[in-house]
Design goal:
Elements lengths: L1 H10 L6 E4 L5 E3 L7 E8 L2 H7 L6 E11 L8 E2 L3 H5 L6 H21 L3 E11 L6 E2 L7 E5 L4 H4 L22
Antiparallel strand pairs: 1-2, 3-4, 3-6, 4-5, 6-7, 6-8
Length: 179
């Protein structure tokens, strides 16, 4: 799955760290110094966003909502201001704008690809950009995206988007959908 999405992103002009697939569970990547700034782009209200903004889960957003998190397991990946990414990337001013633009491009490409297949991209997690040539570096797997069937209404979606849902497509068991 990562190979498919990284190839798609590369063809659409998003540089990644992916080199090639080695086996069903391994891939060769470029060595990167990761900036510990994770981006999450939401197209549909879910999880903590619903709680923080008082919005209904499953509600489709008019435009993608971008959030930044500091990648730190000991701190439980806290939500941060976008400008905090500048301080995490050797203090380069405006770096957060580049990271945000990359996250929105990844979201746009994945959203279009999945939409053509009858799947709504709820959340895309662009994860960490690198300090080297703005390459996207992480894995793309069901744990990093949330999707819904296109025919799922906002009412049907409400309360049905648990954290880290992974792949969910109407009428298809989770295992059969790749998750």
């Amino acid at each position: 799955m990562s190979e498919l999405f990284f190839g798609l992103l590369e063809r659409e002009g998003v540089p990644t760290h992916f080199v090639r697939r080695l086996s069903d569970r391994e891939m060769l990547t470029r060595r990167l110094e990761i900036i510990p700034c994770e981006t999450v782009v939401q197209n549909v209200v879910a999880g903590s966003l619903a709680k923080r903004l008082g919005r209904t889960e499953g509600e489709e957003l008019k435009s993608p909502f971008v959030e930044f998190y500091y990648k730190s397991d000991p701190l439980s990946d806290p939500l941060i201001l976008s400008r905090a990414c500048d301080s995490r990337s050797d203090g380069e001013r405006g770096r957060h704008q580049t990271i945000r633009a990359m996250a929105l491009k990844v979201n746009e490409v994945l959203r279009r690809f999945l939409d053509e297949r009858g799947v709504v991209l709820s959340i895309s997690n662009s994860s960490s950009p690198s300090s080297w040539k703005d390459l996207l570096g992480d894995e793309i797997c069901p744990d990093h995206v949330q999707v819904l069937g296109q025919d799922d209404s906002a009412e049907a979606r409400q309360g049905s988007i648990p954290p880290r849902l992974g792949w969910r497509r109407r009428g298809i068991p989770r295992d059969a959908a790749g998750g």
